[in-house]
Write a structure and sequence with these properties.
single chain, mainly beta, four-stranded antiparallel β-sheet
């Protein structure tokens, strides 16, 4: 049984930082491309960042570029999202997702991902 479990969310002031974690069981991230998505109240889910299954390439949404870093610890089978210079508009539920693929691209479409975590709330106060 595959499980993705996010942690690390919370309440932070604008300008602060958080590191989200996504720990997997039942799958190995080195065989899956992984994405972080977020969904704010009343808005559609949107792609934030992704790391390809080889770990050799990452991509980011323009609205977080330069403020966010996605990384992976193969030994811990965990993917991280380091978020800096947080803004109130970053407030959302952040979820990680895994996609079994051998493509050399990172999909930004949530519908293409196979497994999802339950999400972790990030709230940024002004």
């Amino acid at each position: 049984q595959v499980q993705l479990v996010e942690s690390g969310g919370g309440l932070v002031q604008a300008g602060g930082s958080l590191r989200l974690s996504c720990a997997a069981s039942g799958l190995t991230f080195s065989s899956y491309s992984t994405g972080w998505f977020r969904q704010a109240p009343g808005k559609e889910r949107e792609f934030v960042a992704g790391i390809i299954w080889t770990g050799g390439f990452t991509t980011y949404a323009n609205f977080v570029k330069g403020r966010v870093t996605i990384s992976r610890d193969t030994a811990k089978n965990t993917v991280y999202l380091q978020m800096n210079s947080l803004k109130p508009e970053d407030t959302a539920v952040y979820s990680c997702a895994a996609r079994f693929t051998r493509q050399s691209i990172i999909s930004r479409l949530s519908s293409t991902y196979d497994y999802w975590g339950q999400g972790t709330q990030v709230t940024v106060s002004s």
